[in-house]
Amino acid sequence: MSAFTLELTPAHHELIRRTHAFAEDVVRPAAAKYDAAEECPWEIVDRAAREGFYNALFYADLIADPTGLSLPLFLEEMFWGCAGIGLTVVLPALALSALNQAGTPEQLARWAPEMFGEPGDIKLAALAVSEPQGGSDVANLQTRARKEGDEWVLDGEKIWIGNGGIADVTIVNAVVDPELGTKGQAMFVVPKDTPGMEQVRRLRKLGHRASHTAELRFESCRIPAENLLGGEDKLEHKLEKARRGEGKPAALGTFEQTRPMVAAMALGVARASFEYACSYARQREAFGGPIIGNQGVSFPLADLAADIDAARLLTWRASWMAANGVPFQAGEGSMSKLKASEVAVRAAEQAVQTCGGWGYVDDLPVEKWYRDAKLYTIFEGTSEIQRMVIGRTLTDPEATDTPLHHHLPGDRGGVSRKFGHGSLARARAGEAFMRLAKKAPDSVLRLGGKLASPGA
């Protein structure tokens, strides 16, 4: 297990440099065009593939980083460029996460390449969970899957599906045993052009207009039995555990990993808005000087500076926990998404306010960021859902009686347990030194002071 640290590796810094350069040089210049046209940015996705940012192994490598930081670092920089284009680039990673969580190694090898394609032959993937009547309520899914011979048959509707209807691979969450609630669900792979799966309509959105979002219908949609993620033996074992009151929902593992991902996306929009507002306020002059000198402008920006960093630290912690299998005992994943999404909305709104009338028209990018930011308080669970998740942990004494650091994993033995910083042995040694100091010569005091100083 990797220790939680804020120290970035040389590889992290190189990832940041490469991604930021791509976001600044390729993504931002194209953002307004694709936002206005509301078109899938195929050209930019192909460029991302050529730069190594769009393939299954790249995302698998980011997810496998034991520090947990590679993925949020990448996402923040990419979404700093454009949230809509960024979402199109990373949407297959959400489906890949579900495939990785629920599928077998053979299924991963079979379908992961079909989710991304390669430069010159780009493919897309989609994750279909939400439904018209349920929204964030995964316990209220109506899409059903039933076994008929060597096939599974899907019936139901899905909505808010990124890449829905144009994806080469769609991972679909469906109910196989209604009596078991969320624990009676499974995930299935539905390839493009499968009879019975159709795009009902493309959704026109407030923001993220460069990403394709659609409503899907499954009507007697037949797929091979082998397209059940995890296989039938694993499904039967899971259902049997659920009947005994054990196990967890099929989509829950995916959400645990994706909520910090969504938080990192929101941070990209928040940072873009914040940086632009600061730059504008330094250059815009009114009443005899730059408006940044007015507390009415600088104080809200100061609050945002603190809140963005706080949200980033929550995101890094949740990402590290997810990467190392540390349970979210107090809703730490939901905390990261809640705070990052809400600070993104406030940062974008403040950017519009700082720019005044110019912020309200599309001459400046802040009105687009304002429209984009709102999504993060809604998708992958609304802010209300995140508060509900966190609130439910308050009934658990283990989650509320002690702070997080009391139960974080780590080496609880060894020499440092007895002689490390803050140990009783060091405290006693310090007391003895202070007693001797009254009689010791200056040379001995200097040596003792060096030994006792921070960092020794």
Describe the structure concisely for a colleague.
With 456 residues, the protein is an alpha+beta fold.
Summary keywords:
FAD, Butyryl-CoA Dehydrogenase, subunit A, domain 2, alpha+beta, 4-stranded antiparallel beta sheet, Acyl-CoA dehydrogenase family protein, Butyryl-CoA Dehydrogenase, subunit A, domain 3, Acyl-CoA_Oxase/DH_mid-dom, oxidoreductase
If strands are numbered along the chain, what order do they take across the biggest sheet?
4-5-9-8
C-alpha termini separation = 26 Å
Shape: globular
Estimate the mean pLDDT confidence.
Answer: 91
Task: Specify the number of helices.
Answer: 17
Question: What structural class results from the helix and strand content?
Answer: alpha+beta
The level 1 CATH classification of one domain is Mainly Alpha
Q: Mind telling me the C-alpha Rg?
A: 25 Å
Report the sheet-strand fraction. Answer: 5-15%
Helix content: 40-55%
CATH architecture of one domain: Up-down Bundle
Query: Unreliable runs, pLDDT <50, ≥5 residues?
Result: none
By CATH, the superfamily of one domain comes out as Butyryl-CoA Dehydrogenase, subunit A, domain 3
Kindly identify the CATH topology of one domain: Butyryl-CoA Dehydrogenase, subunit A, domain 3
Query: What pattern of helices and strands is seen along the backbone?
Result: HHHHHHEEEEEEEEEHHEEHHHHHHHHH
- The count of DSSP E runs of length 2 or more, i.e. the number of strands, is 11
What is the makeup of the main sheet? 4 strands, antiparallel
